[in-house]
Each structure stands twice: as C-alpha cells, then as structure tokens.
Design goal:
It contains nine helices and no strands. It is globular and about 50 Å long. It is found in: Cell membrane.
Length: 203
C-alpha cells in the first residue's frame, strides 16, 4: 500500500513544478506578507491538484468528461480570475505587511490559488498521463487511490514549500524592494499570464 503513497509523491514532484499564476502569487505574497501567506497560497493549488488527481485515480470519468467538455468556458473563467488578481495588484494602494496575516487574508490566499488551480481542467489529462506512465490505471481501490492522491499532495506541496523558502531567503537578502513596485511587477506578470490563457482559447 505504501508504494502508492511514494508513487504519488514522485508524481507530485515531477508534475507539480511551481509555475504560472500561482507561482507568481506565492512569491509575491511571501515577499510582501511572509512565508505563512506563501504556504497558504501553495496549499490552495495543491488542494486543486488533489481534486484532479482523485478523478484519475478513482476513475471518476463522468466528472472528468464533463469538465473536459466545458474546458473552454472554464479556461475563460480562469483567465478572467488571473486578470482580475493582476489588475487588483496594479490598482492596490499601500497596505500594511501584516494585512495578509488576518483571517480574511488567510482565506483569500487559499481560495484564490485554489480557484486558479481548479479552472485548469487540463490537469486531469496531466495526471492521467502520469498515472499511466507509472503503471497506475484508473479505478483503484479507495484506500490505494487515497494514498496515491495524498502522495500527490505531498509532492506538489514540497515544491510550494521550497518556493516559499526561496522567496523568504531572497526577501532577507534584498529588503530594498518597494511594496508599490512589487505590486506593479507581479500585477503585470499576472495580467500577462491571464492574457495568455485567453489567447490560447482564441488560437
């Protein structure tokens, strides 16, 4: 049984490399609000990955087929969400460093990244490919599937933890970044990433 756990961890490490909008948010929030905000942001993305991994591991094809059928609309929402977050950073006024440590900030950190991750139905195909590569077919027993999905969570969250630690280390080394400049930089990055999502739909 533990073999499924370790295979899940390996899959999470191989296919959960932090990138894109959630990676930018993790770095921005770690630099601005501290490691707790970065870890909560990564936690939301890992939770979304677990949802899609569970569809592949437990063979819930009726759900995955539905999501893939309407993936264009889901991508449209996801791209809009990323643009919204980017514009919000560009328009944000000066805030206090401890603001994200409040309860509202914690929920926002988690759910914003979860929403971005869950609006990427192509993740289903990624995990199906990964499971097939490792000889794991869909429709596993519940215990086996649960261990596999938990392993995926651990693997992906190790990446987010490493990214948060790296951003925290960079923050200690360079304390000269102005918050307003940081917001503008990551706001532009998020807007570009959101535009890329929509451009892919058009093409």
């Amino acid at each position: 049984m533990t073999a499924y756990l370790w295979k899940g961890v390996l899959i999470g490490l191989l296919f959960g490399l932090p990138a894109g909008a959630v990676g930018a948010l993790t770095v921005q929030r770690t630099l601005r609000y501290g490691p707790k905000a970065g870890l909560l942001t990564g936690l939301g993305s890992s939770a979304a990955d677990c949802f899609y991994a569970s569809l592949g591991a437990l063979g819930l094809t009726f759900i995955s087929d539905f999501l893939l059928q309407y993936k264009a609309a889901i991508y449209l929402v996801g791209g809009g969400l990323i643009l919204f977050l980017g514009i919000g950073l560009l328009c944000r006024k000066e805030d206090t460093p401890g603001q994200e440590g409040k309860d509202v900030g914690r929920w926002r950190s988690f759910f914003s990244s979860f929403a971005i991750g869950i609006t990427n139905p192509a993740a289903i195909l990624t995990f199906l490919f990964a499971f097939s590569w490792f000889g794991l077919s869909g429709g596993l027993a519940f215990g086996e599937g649960a261990l596999l999905v938990f392993g995926v969570f651990l693997g992906t969250y190790l990446w987010w933890g490493a990214l948060t630690v790296a951003a925290s280390f960079a923050k200690k080394k360079t304390n000269t970044i102005e918050p307003a400049q940081m917001n503008r930089l990551f706001g532009v990055i998020l807007c570009l990433l959101g535009a890329v999502v929509w451009l892919r739909l058009i093409l």
